[in-house]
Amino acid sequence: MRFARRELIDLAIAWIALGFAFALFLDPQAGRIVRAGLATGRPRSLVSPVIVDAFALSMLTAGIGFLLHELAHKIVAQRFGQIAHFRADYGMLFIAIASAFAGFLFAAPGAVYHRGRITERQNGLIALAGPVTNLVLAAGFAPLALFSGDFLGDIGAFGVGINLLLAGFNMLPFGPLDGRKVLSWSVVVFVIAFVVSAGSAVFVLFRFGLGF
């Protein structure tokens, strides 16, 4: 896999920014500590065990899910002879962090852009690679969820939930999301992938809530 220097920087910044945003959103206590530290001008309070744990958990679950989702797009695109690179959207990363401070989360950190001659099928497979990667990651995190009551258990539970939600959201057939490209290629493949990913995401969301 080939990476440009700017691409590596964009991936690292997007990973860290998303990790911070998800940490604030998923752990209300961490969000309160960060807001209080910024309001009082006491940055040392930001390096507390609660924030460190929340950030580590977020980086290892949501961050990994995002990173491997994008790398899957890049790998498949390059496999088809495309010139592919990730570009972070710094405006959207700012919105992700700002929305997390406000108590909700809207994250669209960037995307893999590819160019070159390509068929509709190949374009659909490139798009499908991201959500499928998140489904595989969810299955990989599942055994860790058995370690209930400790950090490994938290990683497992959040890893399953976040990756199922990422897969389900990205399979929506709207705008620039992966689902629209898959649908343009094959209705059958789209329906199967959408039912599996969105169905799993809805189950997790309503069965366990945002806290998984």
Automatic annotation (TrEMBL):
Q: Which InterPro entries match?
A: Metallopeptidase_M50B
What are the UniProt keywords, alphabetically?
A: Membrane, Transmembrane, Transmembrane helix
Q: Where are the transmembrane segments?
A: 7-26, 46-69, 90-113, 125-148, 155-176, 182-206
Q: Which domain of life is it from?
A: Archaea
Q: Does the keyword Nucleus apply?
A: no
UniProt KW Transmembrane helix keyword:
yes
* Record-given protein name: Peptidase M50
Organism expressing this protein natively? Halococcus saccharolyticus DSM 5350
Lineage of the species this protein comes from: Archaea, Methanobacteriati, Methanobacteriota, Stenosarchaea group, Halobacteria
